[in-house]
Amino acid sequence: MPGADSAEEIAPALELRGVERRHRSGRGVGPVDLALDASTGLAVLGESGSGKSTLLRVIAGLERPDRGIVRIAGVDAGRSTPGRRDVALVSQELPLYDHLDVRTNVHMAISGLDLERDDRARRIEESIAAADAAEFTNRRADRLSGGERARACLARILARRPAVALLDEPFAGLDRRRRESVRELVCSRLIAAGTAFLLVTHDAGDLVGVSRSIHLDPDGRLEPPHRPGKT
């Protein structure tokens, strides 16, 4: 129609509407409302037990919300199993297949994707290079340092290209110098790849790599969002 806006509205990478999850103890998280666009980072802050990890598990599909809607790239994820959600979850333990080398770990991350052989190989090598992991690509995961494991996990995310990455204190085990360099690499590469990410953290230094933050009070309820460094 002449004069009508022909541009299609782009759905947020992640949208939560009234999401709440409570355990029998009464502890949990929510209700939470938020929207996160592609190529955007969001820090999730709060004291231990405030429901930060529970929120990530609900988004990933590992726990079902008691109420509310989770949309990923515009798609209602309520009926999707964890493996079919367009998300990647990395915990503090930096999980990898320890008996496999880095390249094979990255390959496993995309084993379920419908890709031609050449495209699959290209994506693996490009992701390893982008994650600055080429130097140890043939090393078994159980022989990696903490920083190397973090970069290997990043390569897996970059290869999979999810709409949303969920990072549950992935830098907590690193020393200060390595933590800063790995954090900068992870955040910048995810943004460049068009991936939205949530970063659970207790460290104010981690806010450098994100554009927004939210804070959960001790009962897991959402306090007003603010920009890192603002009061």
Question: How would you characterize this protein structure?
Answer:
With 231 residues, the protein is of the alpha/beta class. Helix content is 27%, strand content 21%. The strands form two sheets. A five-stranded parallel sheet has the order 6-7-8-3-9, with helices on both faces. Strands 2-1-4-5 form a four-stranded antiparallel sheet, covered by helices on one side. A hairpin with a 5-residue loop joins strand 1 (14-22) and strand 2. Residues 1-7 have low confidence and may be disordered.
Keywords:
231 residues; alpha/beta; 5-stranded parallel sheet; 4-stranded antiparallel sheet; 5 helices; 9 strands; globular; disordered N terminus
Topology:
Elements: E1 14-22, E2 28-36, E3 41-45, H1 52-60, E4 67-72, E5 75-76, E6 87-90, H2 102-109, H3 117-130, H4 146-160, E7 164-168, H5 176-192, E8 196-200, E9 212-215
Parallel strand pairs: 3-8, 3-9, 6-7, 7-8
Antiparallel strand pairs: 1-2, 1-4, 4-5
Helix pairs in contact: 2-4, 3-4, 4-5
Whole-angstrom Rg: 18 Å
Overall shape: globular
Overall mean pLDDT score?
Answer: 90
Largest sheet: 5 strands, parallel
How far the N terminus sits from the C terminus, by CA atoms, comes to 46 Å
* Main β-sheet, spatial strand arrangement: 6-7-8-3-9
The stretches of 5 or more residues where confidence is low (pLDDT under 50) are 1-7
Brief synopsis:
The chain is of the alpha/beta class and 231 residues long. The chain has helices spanning 52-60, 102-109, 117-130, 146-160, 176-192; strands spanning 14-22, 28-36, 41-45, 67-72, 75-76, 87-90, 164-168, 196-200, 212-215. The chain has five helices and nine strands; from the N terminus they run βββαβββαααβαββ.
